[in-house]
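Assemble and predict.
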Amino acid sequence: MSELLALLPGYLTAHLQLTLLALLLSIGVSVPLGIAATRLVWLEQPSLALAGVIQTVPSLALLAVMVPVLAALDLQSIGFLPAIVGLTLYGVLPVLRNTVIGIRGVDPALTEAARGVGMTPRQQLLMVELPLAMPVVVGGVRTATVWVVGIATLSTPVGATSLGNYIFSGLQTRNYASVIVGCIAAAGLAMLLDGLVRAIEVGLARRRRGRLVAALAAVVLLYGYAGATLAAPLLGDRERPIVIGTKSFTEQYVLGAVITGWIEHETSRPTSLLQSLGSLVAFDALDAGEIDVYVDYTGTLWANEMGRGDVRAGRAETLRGVREFLEVDHGMTLAATLGFENTYALAVRAADAERLDLRTIGDLVPHAPRLAIGADVEFFARPEWPAVRDTYGLDFREQRAMDASLMYQAAATNEVDVISAYTTDGRIAAYDLRVLEDDRGAIPPYDAILLAGARLAREAPDVLDALARLGGAIDADRMRALNLRVDERGEDPGTVGASLVRELAGRAPAAHRNAPPTRPGAP
Amino acid sequence: MTAADRPVMIEAEGLTRRYGDAVVVDHLSLRVRAGELVVLLGGSGSGKTTTLKMINRLIEPTAGLVSLDGVDTADLPPHELRRRIGYVFQRIGLFPHMTVGENVAVTPVLLGWAPERIAARVDELLALVELDPEMRERHPQELSGGQQQRVGVARALASEPRVMLLDEPFGALDPVTRERLQQSFLRIRAALDLTTVFVTHDMTEALTLADRIGVMHDGRLLQVGTPSDLLTRPADRYVRRLMDTPRRQAAVIDALAGAATAEAGA
């Protein structure tokens, strides 16, 4: 718990930065647009309709879509910017709608009086219409505040730190304390900000100057804090830390901690960890230089990034192809192969394996029409699935997509009968599942490799050397054991990763180790 | 100097307002001399309020022109024209987010007066409309209807206009308050030598206030004259019927009073 709470100041600050800036931008866009919509009749319906359409896009998708959109515009596509753009768009509708309603709602007798006393249209707006519409506009800001604080938790997969880091990593590592801390903190922040905006609303509506001033002062302080913390890294000319990225599942969290600890131990350089990136976001982040190192798997890159449909290439051929792709096409370095494969495998309950005498995937074929297969959301869309299905002629009764973290439990509780397990997942053993052998080699190799961005080769060759010394350091049994400590014993991935770093560092002092950087590990 | 010798302050010529096919004001011509109080009298839909609003261009005329002190109002930016003309609204139209003092000061602020001059002017105006100086910090909602309209009059007078336009300003007030405000207004306009156009549908109010009355019906100005002109020489049947209403009402009241006296005597 104390480990969780130690992360709170950082996550909360990041969440506050996202929320406050996005709200400011939302207001900055919506209020002028709302005013224009009350002046130019043709603008009202299209602008409200567009804002309404944006609102109907699922929030996670809206944020994720910002990544390719910003990349196409040659802007920062991972991290703060896509989150800010997505959140700002989300905040537009309530403020825009209430601005239009608020201004339209001003008594026509008052706008006529404003003209009658000699106001210009601009003075009429600033001195009469806006002040009178303000309580309604602020009501819209309240709605936007609560929405944006909540949706900001979804910034984590696009690489922006937020309270969502608690929730995403907690869900993936089944650390429900982490999920709850994230939810409570986000709810608390929403209530605090909503309370402040409400105090402004009441202060305006009932002309309580004291309350208004106090609430505004608190808002200004919060903005000051968010602005200062945002600006601090830009102002200081501190060396940029080595940024380690992770995707959002247990093994990646553990390896993130291992790499971070290892780089610090071997090079004493400052590091920072950007966790829970979307699976496809991580590669783009490395390519764009937003992160410097992360772990990916040869088969994933082969199929997703290289677009190769021939998933049946051999292991060595795949690794060679991936290396060429990374180093030639993208200027990255394949710094090491870690020594294990984390591949997809079909797994069944041990009891079923016993009863039906299942040993290979081929043994499943006659039983498949009575069985349901469950897999993570990605699997059914990947080339592996048709490859496995067609190689063996599998025809399941039902296929169900679900979150990877729920798959194993779904098999254990008979919700599904076969799952697309990851071979290094500790839960295979924990839930008493049996992996079926892919005797016809339908599933491509998935060697875990360390990818390093162009910046390391340029500026930090010592880090590349250190990463190379991790070559072959983790075999499949060890990885499975590490994953199991997190998934079943509820240990913190950071703690688990750090323990491995201590072990590796103790086994052989850094300076004397000199493992070949890319030696493929034994499976 | 009699009124007839003074220069024309407001002159409307062929003033017309159409909305589609409907003619709301039809070729209206009217001259108001400096210091004169002309009442536009007519039923609802007669075009009297539209006429008033065309004088300060709250409504733009479809045809015809208005000149103010010899200047064509179409040549002035509308907001500048309106700052020179006091306007009192039927629905009062005080700004609810401003204090009484701020409401009164609004036109001087727009004109960019110095703060000390504005403060002194607000005090002066509150005294003129017989409001307690403490009222300046209150908000309009805290005032009675009569007090609100006194503020409305003070606001209209703030920039020392020589011309005042009033659109049924006392229509929503109870009879006692209305009479008190009418008397206040008569005193103020005499003291400030205001040229005034006053719109009402209330015959008694017209007779009480007017130097001259213009009777409007269906967008046309039927007759303009002093109250006694209209009473003694109505130009047509509509004017005669209109002028007869106070007498008929007085007869009803006399009869009731007579009956009451008779009862008391019995």
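The interface with chain B takes residues 109-110, 112-120, 123, 127-128, 131-132, 207 of chain A (CB under 8 Å).
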